Amino acid sequence: MSASAPVSRAPAPVPTGNTFDKYGSTNPVVRRLMAGFEGALDALFSQAAPRSVLDVGCGEGVLTCQWAERLGDGRIVGIDLPDEKLAAEWRTRQRPNLEYRGIEAGALPFADGEFELAAAIEVLEHVPDPERTLAEMTRVAERWLLVSVPREPLWRMLNVLRGAYLREGGNTPGHLNHWSQRRFVELLSRHGPVVEARSPFPWTMLLVRVGS
């Protein structure tokens, strides 16, 4: 094959749900890491104090249902790609103020400013067009974006050190995008001022003010 000949590749599939149950893991190392992650996320969510939430890429709905309970009567909608396995999980996590929808994030069927906060927790690394997803999240969010991604290159280095995904250079399957904390702050700053950045090991987590 000529060096200049194009190579056709099918687009990588976008996963639905978690490939690893980090929320339910009993591994002591994972639990320690998740304690830091959940503590930082809780602090930023409390700072935003939203009355309504859109959870983009909600997976099995574990966090979405927790937020629904915390909001009381406040509305929360969790979205992810249509998937029967996810739908079965959603049926086990129900609340009167909680709704799930199987839709894509690139063209959200919601009005401008319909939610006070739009969240994407461990999602943007998976989506083919993160800029489009962020633009849609910003459009439907009245006040806040709350987002987290794996911190690179630390994430891949840790995978290599534990002997995982070596043929992929430590890249977790399904991770299409990779950001250092600085680059992720730069990306989100295009949509509004970053009010606070947290670095629970090994993630980057941002709270961004949007709207007027």
In a few lines, what is going on in this structure?
It is built from 6 helices and 7 strands, in the order H-E-H-E-H-E-E-H-E-H-H-E-E. It has 212 residues and is of the alpha/beta class. It has one domain: Rossmann fold.
Q: In this structure, how is the largest beta sheet organized?
A: 7 strands, mixed
Helix content: 25-40%
How far apart are the first and last residues' alpha carbons, in Å? 55 Å
Q: Which structural class should the secondary elements be placed in?
A: alpha/beta
Mean pLDDT: 90
What oligomeric state is this? single chain
CATH class: Alpha Beta
N-to-C order of helices and strands: HEHEHEEHEHHEE
Overall 3D shape: globular
Q: What proportion strand? A: 15-25%
Q: How many beta-strand runs?
A: 7
Which characteristics define this entry?
212 residues, 6 helices, 7-stranded mixed sheet, single chain, disordered N terminus, Rossmann fold, alpha/beta, 21% strand
Written overview of the protein:
The chain is an alpha/beta fold and 212 residues long. The protein has a single domain (28-209), classed as Vaccinia Virus protein VP39 (Rossmann fold), CATH 3.40.50.150. It has six helices and seven strands; from the N terminus they run H-E-H-E-H-E-E-H-E-H-H-E-E. It has helices at 28-48, 62-71, 84-91, 130-140, 154-161, 181-189, and strands at residues 52-56, 75-80, 98-102, 115-121, 141-150, 194-198, 203-209. A seven-stranded mixed sheet has the order 3-2-1-4-5-7-6, sandwiched between helices. The radius of gyration is 17 Å and the shape is globular. The model is unreliable at 1-15 (pLDDT under 50).
